[in-house]
Amino acid sequence: MNVNMKSIGLTESLSQEAMNYSNLLVGRVTAQYKDSYKVVTERGEFIARISGKFRYQINNQVDYPAVGDFVMVDGINDVNGNTVIHHILTRKSIFSRKVAGSRNDIQVVATNIDTLFLCMSMNNDWNLRRMERYLSITWDSGATPVIILTKSDLCEELAAKIQELQPIAIGVDILVTNNLSKDGLQSVFKYIGTGKTIACIGSSGVGKSTLINRVLGNDGIATSETRKDDKGRHTTTRRELFIVPGGGAIIDTPGMRELGIVSSDISKSFADIDQLALQCKYRNCTHNSEPGCAIQQAILEGSLANERLHSYHKLKKEIRYGGLNSKQIEREKINTMFQGISGMKQARKMIKEKNKRNR
Ligand SMILES: Nc1nc2c(ncn2[C@@H]2O[C@H](COP(=O)(O)OP(=O)(O)OP(=O)(O)O)[C@@H](O)[C@H]2O)c(=O)[nH]1
Ligand SMILES: [Zn+2]
């Protein structure tokens, strides 16, 4: 399978960065196994391992290649099939989570994503607090969130549900889909196309794999239906990037029962609360019981849900405890950004934006 790398997201600046390694070929990681990776290049698909030197330089989990990474490889003509990954090119977005059961281990779920489809089904998976988490993490990852409400055929109060969602999804597109009819899918195609990478996240069984199969026009991914084995839990056992026939790439992720937060951008996902807080009487108001608290006032008046304030507090606390992890990620972002001249520019831009945000 020969792949047009531009079509699956190789940008001008990545091509430039790749020129620093003139004897290597650029590829994209499409799947990850125990200690090898599937990589597509313009000359076909290969199973690759990382070089000894690369492994030696790795300090922590986030330094390893992940699905979605553009990497530099050689050895594709090796008769023994020893294709080797030597470098990861600058990541423009990193979507990561804390690994369940471990306090500090970060798992990079996928990288270089333009749009994250935050999937939630309109029947039994409905949970606004979870969506708030997804949104915070997405804003921080560098990708743009789009909310995909699935299984609309199983929901009778569509308008009411969307109304419920709107206050927590300011500025975010909300699409209503239904995998059983073609009409319900038209809206998602707007985000898919040449050069673009989508990743789908959401609880197990909401229909991510079914949606991707529809987009790809085949039944390539086993859904819980086609596998006929259980209740729809953990059907997708690994992350995988698929090439969309008309251009672009789409990444399936396993249903995550809990999305441990590594870092998240609360200032964006809870902009309404930050805005209100400016009107609190005391600058260091904790919004619990202080007099003149604009947030408590908004709750009294019914313009802000108490539960939303609760998740705001909860997320803030989690991030504080996970501070070390966000620093690790931050360091990773800066390291990779300083590779190559175009990387310098990006790093400068990022630091500027960061300062703006912290002001
Ligand atoms: N009624 C209805 N059922 C759907 C829809 N989309 C998917 N399903 C069914 O929901 C079940 C789960 O779908 P999957 O696509 O495997 O869900 P998933 O989100 O990929 O699940 P994991 O792989 O476990 O993360 C399957 O039986 C699908 O046929 C829909 O729009 N409406
Ligand atoms: Zn207050």
Helix-strand layout with pairing:
Blueprint: H1 12-18, E1 25-32, E2 37-41, E3 44-50, H2 52-57, E4 70-74, E5 83-88, E6 94-98, E7 106-111, E8 115-121, H3 128-141, E9 144-150, H4 158-165, E10 173-176, E11 197-202, H5 208-216, H6 224-227, E12 240-243, E13 249-252, H7 266-269, H8 271-277, H9 294-301, H10 306-321, H11 323-337, H12 341-358
Parallel strand pairs: 3-5, 8-9, 8-11, 9-10, 11-13
Antiparallel strand pairs: 1-2, 1-4, 2-3, 4-5, 6-7, 12-13
Helix pairs in contact: 11-12
Bound molecules: guanosine-5'-triphosphate and zinc ion.
Notes on the protein architecture:
The chain has four domains: 5-88, Beta Barrel (OB fold (Dihydrolipoamide Acetyltransferase, E2P)); 97-223 and 237-258, Rossmann fold (3-Layer(aba) Sandwich); 271-323, Ribonucleotide Reductase Protein R1, domain 1 (Orthogonal Bundle), CATH 1.10.40.50; 326-358. Strands 10-9-8-11-13-12 form a six-stranded mixed β-sheet. The chain has a five-stranded mixed β-barrel with strand order 1-2-3-5-4. Strands 6-7 form a two-stranded antiparallel sheet. The protein is an alpha/beta fold. It is globular, with a radius of gyration of 21 Å. It contains twelve helices and 13 strands. Helix 11 (323-337) packs antiparallel against helix 12 (341-358). The model is unreliable at 225-237, 321-329 and 336-341 (pLDDT under 50). Bound molecules: guanosine-5'-triphosphate and zinc ion. Guanosine-5'-triphosphate binds next to helix 5 and helix 6. One of its GO terms (molecular function) is metal ion binding.
